[in-house]
Design goal:
Elements: H1 3-26, E1 37-41, E2 50-53, E3 59-62, H2 70-79, E4 84-89, H3 95-98, H4 101-107, E5 109-115, H5 123-134, E6 139-141, E7 155-160, E8 175-180, E9 183-187, H6 193-201, E10 210-212, H7 224-230, E11 234-237, H8 250-258, E12 262-265, H9 266-269, E13 272-276, E14 281-285
Parallel strand pairs: 3-4, 4-5, 5-6, 9-10, 10-11, 11-12
Antiparallel strand pairs: 1-2, 1-13, 2-3, 7-8, 8-9, 13-14
The protein binds zinc ion.
Length: 290
């Protein structure tokens, strides 16, 4: 071999090996990025709207407030940098839960939509159906005992409806229990005492760290037996300031106080964000109660 070529080859090998040696050292190993479950209880006045951001980067919206709140819910989700809602849950067809849902469906890429097997003849309800149809989406009927496949790092189970028919529309509410590692959230929509009794009878594990109170803290929900089974550390009430229903009712507030449960309220605290690392839950409040 020609000496010149030999030296050039050696040089190339040296350069290559030195550059390759330098490469790994120049990269400081990045720490594993923390993974959180973020639950946003969006302040929509008198109504419910809960945005769930999972540790694996999936998104679920449970309810979208009343008609007047649709744009606000959309812009809130957009501000989170979210373009796709993998799952939408419309707990039941009352306007304070599904009013803003047509805006949401129109504004985002949507995966699955869960609704109970209950219709309403209102324009609000029809608007939601039209938005779903126009997007070429199908409704998945919610049934108790079914798991929602959202993110393998969390468990999302439907605990109600348990019957085909109810007298009260509120009792058709889709009730969801969400578990991330050692932390858990129970989200009962507007489910009332009758539905609570059914869930207890079915033997579901209701114990949860956080309970979003059923039906905006009305006395028709959060029966003593149910509260005891859930025995939450934290309670959240989604209600509008000075609402005409008097929600939350004083009987409910008394029960929470007696049980020593920490309470947050959207009418007092604005939007409430609960962040779980799987072990602990921290709360970010839009404003302190005053
Ligand atoms: Zn409601």
């Amino acid at each position: 071999m020609n000496l010149k070529i030999f030296i050039t080859l050696l040089l190339v090998i040296f350069l290559l090996s030195s550059c390759c040696n330098i490469e790994p050292d120049s990269k400081t190993p990045s720490p594993p990025s923390p993974v959180f479950l973020k639950m946003h209880f969006i302040d929509v006045g008198q109504g419910d709207s809960i945005l769930v951001e999972t540790p694996g980067g999936k998104n679920m919206l449970i309810d979208a407030g009343d008609n007047s709140e649709g744009e606000r819910v959309v812009s809130y989700i957009e501000k989170e940098g979210i373009k796709r809602l993998d799952v939408i849950v419309a707990t039941h067809p009352d306007s304070d839960h599904i009013g803003g849902m047509d805006n949401v469906v129109e504004s985002f890429d949507v995966g699955k939509i869960y609704m109970p097997d209950k219709t309403k003849t209102t324009k609000t309800f029809k608007d939601v159906l039209v938005s779903i149809r126009d997007k070429g989406l199908k409704i998945t009927k919610a049934r108790a005992g079914v798991n929602i496949d959202l993110d393998p790092s969390i468990n999302v189970e439907i605990l109600s409806p348990n019957s085909a028919e109810y007298e009260e529309t509120n009792n058709y509410s889709i009730v969801i229990k969400l578990v991330y590692d050692n932390t858990s959230f129970l989200l009962p929509g507007d489910a009332e005492g009758f539905s609570e009794k059914e869930m207890i009878k079915k033997g579901y594990d209701l114990k949860s760290d956080v309970l979003k109170l059923g039906h905006h803290g009305s006395h028709s929900s959060t029966t003593p037996d149910f509260l005891e089974k859930v025995s939450p550390k934290y309670a959240i009430i989604c209600a509008g300031k000075g609402n005409k229903f008097g929600h939350p009712h004083k009987e409910t507030l008394k029960k929470l106080k007696k049980a020593g449960i920490q309470l947050y309220r959207t009418d007092k605290n604005g939007t409430i964000i609960a962040i779980s690392d799987g072990k602990r839950i921290e709360f970010n409040l839009e404003r302190e109660d005053n």
